[in-house]
Amino acid sequence: MRTTNIQAITYDAAGTLIHLAEPVGVSYSTVAARHGISSAPETLDAAFKTVWKRTPLPFDDRAPRDPNEKAWWQRVVHDVFAESGVALPDNDVFAVFFEDLYEHFETPGTWLADPDAEEVLAKTGEKYRLAVLSNFDARLRRILSDLSLLGYFEKVFLSCEIGASKPDSKIFETAARGLELAPESILHVGDDPECDGDGSARAGFHHFRVGNTTSPLGKLIDELSLA
Q: Which of 104, 120, 145 is the last residue of a domain?
């Protein structure tokens, strides 16, 4: 990767800078139990992975659009419990449960900062302008703030506010315009090979792929010769 012309770095959030403190199925099952819904965490975790793979992201033209990302998440949660074979309560009870679950994923302690996040942001922030470029919804600002990461960023670009999800080039183009930089002067850091890798490449960004074992976030410091 040529780094001489890079002026800014955009970071993906979930899977790159932040990670869930426990498996999705555990959280779903714990919150469901508070509303009288009995479920097995392992079954829900497997169902979530299945539903996630087959569900187009918000703002994807391949599927009918939901009114907003929260409505999209409600549909995903409903499908996860249906996929797992759990008997769903009536709509009113399910709506209350979903609100509780949605708020749970914004609660401090639900997300953890990547072990390398603060060092990487501090070092890259000394040389480059930093921004978040994420398919997360508006809850992300509070999550990053609670983890003491939000202050590193000049701007936060979210799919729910732009009306496009990675890998759509629109979200990358919006970030480039917002930073007033040419795409080729921006490096995008993310873990998803399609959303982050293919999306950034089509938009003309550089890309650094984060992987749990092969390429941890901390390796970016060496890649940019900032050690």
A: 104
Domain that holds residue 43: 24-104
Q: Alpha carbon of 209 to those of 67, 89, 111, 188: distances in Å?
A: 32, 41, 21, 8
Asked if 128 and 201 sit in the same domain, the reply is: yes
Q: Which of 127, 120, 125, 123 has the alpha carbon at shortest distance from 5?
A: 127
Cα 123 from Cα 1, distance rounded (Å): 18
**Is residue 120 a part of any domain in this protein?**
yes
Domain boundary among 104, 119, 150: 104
pTM score of the predicted model = 0.93
Question: For residue 56, is the peptide bond before it cis, meaning its omega torsion is within 30 degrees of 0?
Answer: no
**Residue 226 confidence (pLDDT) above 90:** no
pLDDT band at 1 (very low <50, low <70, confident <90, very high): low
CA triplet 89, 90, 91: central angle to 5 degrees? 120
Two tokens, residue 77: 């949660």
**Distance (Å, whole) CA 145 – CA 120:** 17
